[in-house]
Structure formats: structure tokens, C-alpha cells
Amino acid sequence: MRIRRFSDPEMLLAELVGRRINYAVAEVGPGWYRDDHRRILGYEEVGPPIPGGLFTRAVELVRGYEFAPPELIRGYFRQGSLLLGRDMVLEGCFCGVRFLMGVRVTAVLDSVDAQVSRWGWAYETLDGHLERGRVDYEVGKDHVTGAVEFRAHSYSRPSHEAHPILRFGWAIFGRRVQLRFYRRVGEQMAALTADRPITVAPTVQARLSRPGLTIIDGGRRTPPMTSSSGA
After folding, report:
1. What is residue 38's DSSP assignment?
2. Phi, psi dihedral angles at 75 (to 5 degrees)
3. DSSP secondary structure of 124-171
4. SS percent in the chain: helix, strand, coil, step 5
5. Quick one: three-class SS letters along 102-136?
6. Residue 3 pLDDT
7. CB 133 within 8 A of CB 125
8. pLDDT at 49
9. Alpha helix (H) residue ranges in 156-228
């Protein structure tokens, strides 16, 4: 773990190449948190998704990680990078402390059958992350009812390799913040896809400075990448 007064998420992004997923699927079992949060965003005409309709708008928000609640977390990644295999830095904020954590997109879902259309992707945590696990984000449309739904489901547990201070903080606050995050992503998706949004939330492109200490995950470091990066 590294603690700095200020730090740019792009510095950590350059270090993620070569890091490994920090858990094995075979380990997932008793003692892991499992979450499944669903939010109906609205309705389209029955049948497959309508071009430019609610399903399409929701997919674009999920594709760019633009549904993340900015007061809790922001995502940084290289513009133009392929989605599958994309490295991301997640910048969390709690009590004035910033946490920079590395993840990698390891699955992309794009399926259509007679009943439903689905699109989404999943990331898994990398060495140095304060958690271990996977999160899936998915948009689905029921062809029979026209309902468009956003779903976030995951399994996770605190990393045993995290610094003792972080493990202590997680034991007190972590689960509460985790559940708040899932509630907020549903709210964000509903607000951003509404025909007349009540709230226009900042997207991951907004770079707002956050004062205070930065805790950077302690994974293996690699030489910086040469290509430009963006949020």
C-alpha cells in the first residue's frame, strides 16, 4: 500500500498491465458476499430493442461506465481501448480519503433470443485491490412486456492482502458503503435514462480534484505505458 497527499489515477493505470486477477473462481463460496440489484428503467414497445430507444441509451451508459455515482466512485480507462480486456482504475472516496484500485474487464455479454435482449460486461479485481471478486453490469429488455431493466450482480470479499488499516475500516464501513453503491447505480441509471431527467449526474469524463490523502493499491508495479490515457 502506498499513501500520498495527491496522486493521478492515470499513474496507476499505467501499472496495471501484467497484474493478475487476485482470486480464483474455485475459492468463491461460504463467507463471500453475493449481491443482485435490479432496477426497472422503463418500457419500450414490445419486441426487440428500438434503435435509439431506452434499451440503446442504457447500453451506452453501461458501455462507458457513466452510471457510476460520482460522489462514491469514478472510473478511468484508456479511450478507444477494446472493452474486453480493458484495464480500469476505480477511484473511490470515503471520509476525505481516495482509494485507487485496479480492475480488468473479463467478460462481455451480447445476447438476443425470442424472449429477451441482454448486453453488459463484467470486471474482476486485480492484485492490490482491497477486495476480491467480480461485478457484472447488464441491461436487459423483455420482448413480451417491453420492460427495460438494469442489473448489477456480484460476488466479493475483502482481500486478505490488504493493509490491516484497510481491513479494519472495511469491517466497520465497507459493507454499508458497498450496498449504498449498488443502490446509487440504480438511481443513476434511472435518472440518466429518464425522458426528462430530474438529475443530470457527472460522467466519468468529469475530472474533479479531490483533496486529501490517496491510498494506492499495492499490487506489483510494471513499467509505464507509452500511449495516452483518458477517463
Report:
1. E
2. -115, 140
3. EEBTT-SEEEEEEEEEEEETTT-EEEEEEEEEEEE-TTS-HHHHHHII
4. 20, 35, 45
5. EEEEEEEEEEECCCEEEEEEEEEEECCCCEEEEEE
6. 40
7. yes
8. 96
9. 164-169, 175-193
List, for the chain, all residue ranges whose pLDDT scores fall below the cut of 50.
Answer: 1-6, 197-213, 221-231
pLDDT tens column, 61-99: 999 999 999 888 889 999 889 999 999 999 887 666 778
Sign of CA dihedral 84, 89, 79, 69: positive
Find residue 112's DSSP bridge partners: 117
Q: How many Å apart are CA 110 and CA 10, to the nearest integer?
A: 29
Radius of gyration, alpha carbons of the chain: 18
The grid cell for 200 is 443530470
Between CA 100 and CA 103, with CA 101 as vertex, the angle to 5 degrees is: 145
The three grid cell numbers given for residue 112, joined into one nine-digit string: 438476443
Distance separating alpha carbons of residues 171 and 131, to the nearest angstrom: 12
pLDDT at 171: 64
Structural contact between residues 176 and 155, judged by C-beta atoms closer than 8 angstroms:
no
